[in-house]
Amino acid sequence: MLACGVYGWCFGFQTVIAFETRYMARKTPVVNKIPVELADTSVSRASGKKLSYFGYEFEIPWDDIDESKTRVVGKDKVVIAFRSGNVLSVWSGPPREFVKIVLANSKVGPDTFRQICGDEALQSDYALHRLILETTPDKITPFVSRETAARQVVLVLMKGISARRGSDSGIFLVQAGEFKGFQYGHPPNSSGLSLELFADSGSLDFIFIQKANGPTSISQADINRVLRTLKKDTATTPTAATLSN
User: Residue 208 and residue 222: Cα distance in Å, rounded?
Assistant: First the structure.
Protein backbone atom coordinates (compact mmCIF):
# COMPACT_ATOMS: atom_id res chain seq x y z
CA MET A 1 0.00 0.00 0.00
CA LEU A 2 2.83 2.32 0.84
CA ALA A 3 4.52 1.58 -2.49
CA CYS A 4 1.26 2.20 -4.36
CA GLY A 5 0.78 5.45 -2.50
CA VAL A 6 4.29 6.64 -3.35
CA TYR A 7 3.85 5.65 -6.98
CA GLY A 8 0.51 7.44 -7.20
CA TRP A 9 1.98 10.57 -5.62
CA CYS A 10 5.05 10.63 -7.85
CA PHE A 11 3.76 9.17 -11.12
CA GLY A 12 -0.03 8.99 -10.93
CA PHE A 13 -0.71 12.08 -13.06
CA GLN A 14 1.74 11.02 -15.74
CA THR A 15 0.31 7.47 -15.79
CA VAL A 16 -3.23 8.73 -16.33
CA ILE A 17 -2.06 11.04 -19.12
CA ALA A 18 -0.09 8.21 -20.76
CA PHE A 19 -3.15 5.92 -20.79
CA GLU A 20 -5.43 8.70 -22.08
CA THR A 21 -3.16 9.63 -24.98
CA ARG A 22 -2.74 5.98 -25.98
CA TYR A 23 -6.50 5.55 -25.95
CA MET A 24 -6.75 8.63 -28.15
CA ALA A 25 -4.17 7.12 -30.51
CA ARG A 26 -6.36 4.03 -30.96
CA LYS A 27 -9.31 6.23 -31.90
CA THR A 28 -7.26 8.72 -33.97
CA PRO A 29 -4.24 6.83 -35.38
CA VAL A 30 -2.87 9.93 -37.10
CA VAL A 31 -1.48 11.21 -33.78
CA ASN A 32 1.10 8.39 -33.98
CA LYS A 33 2.43 9.65 -37.32
CA ILE A 34 5.35 12.05 -37.66
CA PRO A 35 6.56 13.93 -40.75
CA VAL A 36 9.06 11.99 -42.87
CA GLU A 37 10.92 12.75 -46.08
CA LEU A 38 9.19 12.00 -49.37
CA ALA A 39 10.61 8.93 -51.09
CA ASP A 40 9.19 9.83 -54.52
CA THR A 41 10.81 12.99 -55.90
CA SER A 42 9.85 12.44 -59.56
CA VAL A 43 8.29 15.38 -61.42
CA SER A 44 5.57 15.07 -64.04
CA ARG A 45 6.48 16.38 -67.49
CA ALA A 46 2.95 16.16 -68.86
CA SER A 47 1.49 19.05 -70.82
CA GLY A 48 -0.21 21.49 -68.47
CA LYS A 49 -0.65 25.13 -67.56
CA LYS A 50 1.07 27.86 -65.63
CA LEU A 51 -1.18 29.50 -63.03
CA SER A 52 -0.73 32.67 -61.03
CA TYR A 53 -2.63 33.50 -57.84
CA PHE A 54 -2.01 35.79 -54.87
CA GLY A 55 1.42 36.88 -56.07
CA TYR A 56 2.75 33.37 -56.75
CA GLU A 57 2.94 31.22 -59.84
CA PHE A 58 3.17 27.46 -60.33
CA GLU A 59 2.57 24.82 -62.95
CA ILE A 60 0.00 22.05 -62.99
CA PRO A 61 0.34 18.95 -65.22
CA TRP A 62 -3.27 19.11 -66.44
CA ASP A 63 -4.77 21.24 -69.22
CA ASP A 64 -8.48 20.43 -68.80
CA ILE A 65 -9.49 23.36 -66.55
CA ASP A 66 -13.25 23.89 -66.50
CA GLU A 67 -13.49 27.69 -66.72
CA SER A 68 -17.22 27.71 -65.99
CA LYS A 69 -16.69 26.14 -62.55
CA THR A 70 -13.37 27.73 -61.60
CA ARG A 71 -13.76 30.72 -59.30
CA VAL A 72 -11.81 33.07 -57.04
CA VAL A 73 -13.39 33.39 -53.59
CA GLY A 74 -12.59 36.68 -51.88
CA LYS A 75 -8.96 37.76 -51.78
CA ASP A 76 -7.40 34.58 -50.45
CA LYS A 77 -8.95 31.50 -52.08
CA VAL A 78 -9.37 30.02 -55.53
CA VAL A 79 -11.17 26.82 -56.51
CA ILE A 80 -9.89 25.33 -59.78
CA ALA A 81 -12.20 22.74 -61.34
CA PHE A 82 -11.17 20.26 -64.02
CA ARG A 83 -13.29 18.48 -66.59
CA SER A 84 -12.01 15.21 -65.14
CA GLY A 85 -13.97 15.98 -61.98
CA ASN A 86 -10.84 16.68 -59.94
CA VAL A 87 -10.56 19.91 -57.94
CA LEU A 88 -7.60 21.97 -56.72
CA SER A 89 -8.15 24.66 -54.08
CA VAL A 90 -5.48 27.20 -53.16
CA TRP A 91 -5.58 29.35 -50.02
CA SER A 92 -3.30 32.26 -49.16
CA GLY A 93 -2.65 33.46 -45.62
CA PRO A 94 -0.53 36.07 -43.82
CA PRO A 95 2.64 35.15 -41.90
CA ARG A 96 2.23 33.69 -38.38
CA GLU A 97 -1.54 33.41 -38.83
CA PHE A 98 -1.71 30.02 -37.11
CA VAL A 99 0.43 31.18 -34.19
CA LYS A 100 -1.78 34.21 -33.63
CA ILE A 101 -4.98 32.15 -33.79
CA VAL A 102 -3.65 29.58 -31.33
CA LEU A 103 -2.45 32.20 -28.86
CA ALA A 104 -5.74 34.11 -29.07
CA ASN A 105 -7.91 31.02 -28.57
CA SER A 106 -5.81 28.86 -26.27
CA LYS A 107 -7.85 27.64 -23.30
CA VAL A 108 -4.74 27.58 -21.13
CA GLY A 109 -3.96 31.22 -21.90
CA PRO A 110 -1.26 32.72 -24.13
CA ASP A 111 1.39 32.89 -21.42
CA THR A 112 0.93 29.26 -20.40
CA PHE A 113 0.86 28.15 -24.01
CA ARG A 114 4.09 30.03 -24.61
CA GLN A 115 5.64 28.05 -21.75
CA ILE A 116 4.33 24.81 -23.26
CA CYS A 117 5.75 25.42 -26.73
CA GLY A 118 8.71 27.66 -26.05
CA ASP A 119 9.50 30.95 -27.77
CA GLU A 120 11.29 29.30 -30.71
CA ALA A 121 8.19 27.35 -31.81
CA LEU A 122 6.12 30.53 -31.78
CA GLN A 123 8.38 32.40 -34.19
CA SER A 124 6.64 30.94 -37.25
CA ASP A 125 3.67 28.83 -38.28
CA TYR A 126 6.04 26.21 -39.68
CA ALA A 127 7.91 25.84 -36.38
CA LEU A 128 4.69 25.47 -34.38
CA HIS A 129 3.21 22.97 -36.82
CA ARG A 130 6.39 20.90 -36.80
CA LEU A 131 6.48 20.83 -33.00
CA ILE A 132 2.87 19.60 -32.91
CA LEU A 133 3.33 17.05 -35.70
CA GLU A 134 6.48 15.58 -34.14
CA THR A 135 4.75 15.00 -30.80
CA THR A 136 3.41 11.47 -30.33
CA PRO A 137 1.76 9.63 -27.40
CA ASP A 138 4.76 7.34 -26.94
CA LYS A 139 6.74 10.34 -25.69
CA ILE A 140 4.48 10.43 -22.63
CA THR A 141 5.48 7.78 -20.08
CA PRO A 142 4.72 7.46 -16.36
CA PHE A 143 8.27 8.49 -15.57
CA VAL A 144 8.49 11.87 -17.29
CA SER A 145 7.95 14.95 -15.17
CA ARG A 146 4.44 16.27 -14.60
CA GLU A 147 5.34 19.40 -16.53
CA THR A 148 6.53 17.35 -19.52
CA ALA A 149 3.41 15.17 -19.46
CA ALA A 150 1.13 18.22 -19.31
CA ARG A 151 3.01 19.89 -22.16
CA GLN A 152 2.99 16.82 -24.37
CA VAL A 153 -0.70 16.03 -23.87
CA VAL A 154 -1.68 19.53 -25.00
CA LEU A 155 0.34 19.09 -28.19
CA VAL A 156 -1.08 15.60 -28.85
CA LEU A 157 -4.62 16.92 -28.41
CA MET A 158 -3.89 19.76 -30.85
CA LYS A 159 -2.47 17.25 -33.31
CA GLY A 160 -5.61 15.13 -33.20
CA ILE A 161 -7.96 18.11 -33.52
CA SER A 162 -6.09 19.70 -36.42
CA ALA A 163 -5.47 16.51 -38.42
CA ARG A 164 -5.67 17.33 -42.14
CA ARG A 165 -7.38 15.43 -44.93
CA GLY A 166 -5.20 12.55 -46.10
CA SER A 167 -3.06 12.39 -42.96
CA ASP A 168 -3.92 8.74 -42.35
CA SER A 169 -1.75 7.69 -45.30
CA GLY A 170 1.24 9.73 -44.12
CA ILE A 171 2.68 13.14 -43.30
CA PHE A 172 5.68 14.28 -45.33
CA LEU A 173 8.21 17.10 -45.24
CA VAL A 174 8.21 19.19 -48.42
CA GLN A 175 9.94 22.30 -49.75
CA ALA A 176 9.06 24.66 -52.59
CA GLY A 177 11.33 27.61 -53.23
CA GLU A 178 11.13 29.89 -50.22
CA PHE A 179 8.39 27.70 -48.75
CA LYS A 180 8.73 24.69 -46.51
CA GLY A 181 5.95 22.69 -44.98
CA PHE A 182 4.03 19.44 -45.00
CA GLN A 183 2.16 17.14 -47.33
CA TYR A 184 -0.76 15.32 -45.76
CA GLY A 185 -1.50 12.09 -47.60
CA HIS A 186 0.22 10.12 -50.31
CA PRO A 187 -1.20 8.96 -53.63
CA PRO A 188 -2.57 6.53 -54.55
CA ASN A 189 -3.63 5.91 -50.94
CA SER A 190 -5.63 9.16 -50.67
CA SER A 191 -8.65 10.37 -52.62
CA GLY A 192 -7.70 13.82 -51.34
CA LEU A 193 -4.56 15.33 -49.88
CA SER A 194 -3.16 18.74 -49.02
CA LEU A 195 0.03 20.78 -48.96
CA GLU A 196 0.58 23.26 -46.15
CA LEU A 197 3.43 25.63 -47.01
CA PHE A 198 5.00 28.45 -44.99
CA ALA A 199 7.40 31.29 -45.72
CA ASP A 200 8.30 34.60 -44.10
CA SER A 201 5.98 36.31 -46.60
CA GLY A 202 2.93 34.17 -45.74
CA SER A 203 1.42 30.74 -46.23
CA LEU A 204 -0.18 28.74 -49.04
CA ASP A 205 -2.47 25.73 -48.77
CA PHE A 206 -3.11 23.43 -51.74
CA ILE A 207 -5.96 20.94 -51.44
CA PHE A 208 -6.15 18.23 -54.13
CA ILE A 209 -9.42 16.34 -54.43
CA GLN A 210 -9.65 13.42 -56.82
CA LYS A 211 -12.96 12.24 -58.23
CA ALA A 212 -13.68 8.65 -57.29
CA ASN A 213 -13.17 6.39 -60.31
CA GLY A 214 -12.45 9.48 -62.43
CA PRO A 215 -10.39 9.45 -65.62
CA THR A 216 -7.40 11.34 -64.16
CA SER A 217 -5.44 10.05 -61.17
CA ILE A 218 -3.36 12.50 -59.14
CA SER A 219 0.16 11.15 -58.68
CA GLN A 220 3.03 12.20 -56.47
CA ALA A 221 4.87 13.35 -59.59
CA ASP A 222 1.93 15.68 -60.33
CA ILE A 223 2.15 17.20 -56.86
CA ASN A 224 5.91 17.52 -57.17
CA ARG A 225 5.36 19.51 -60.37
CA VAL A 226 3.47 22.12 -58.33
CA LEU A 227 6.12 22.15 -55.62
CA ARG A 228 9.07 22.34 -58.03
CA THR A 229 7.63 25.28 -60.00
CA LEU A 230 6.17 27.37 -57.16
CA LYS A 231 7.73 30.83 -56.97
CA LYS A 232 6.89 34.51 -56.64
CA ASP A 233 5.18 36.06 -59.63
CA THR A 234 6.71 39.49 -60.06
CA ALA A 235 4.43 40.25 -63.01
CA THR A 236 1.20 40.41 -60.97
CA THR A 237 -0.05 42.05 -57.82
CA PRO A 238 -0.61 39.84 -54.73
CA THR A 239 -4.38 39.77 -55.32
CA ALA A 240 -4.24 39.04 -59.03
CA ALA A 241 -5.32 35.70 -60.43
CA THR A 242 -4.39 34.67 -63.95
CA LEU A 243 -3.77 31.54 -65.93
CA SER A 244 -1.83 30.99 -69.12
CA ASN A 245 -0.85 28.14 -71.38
Answer: 11
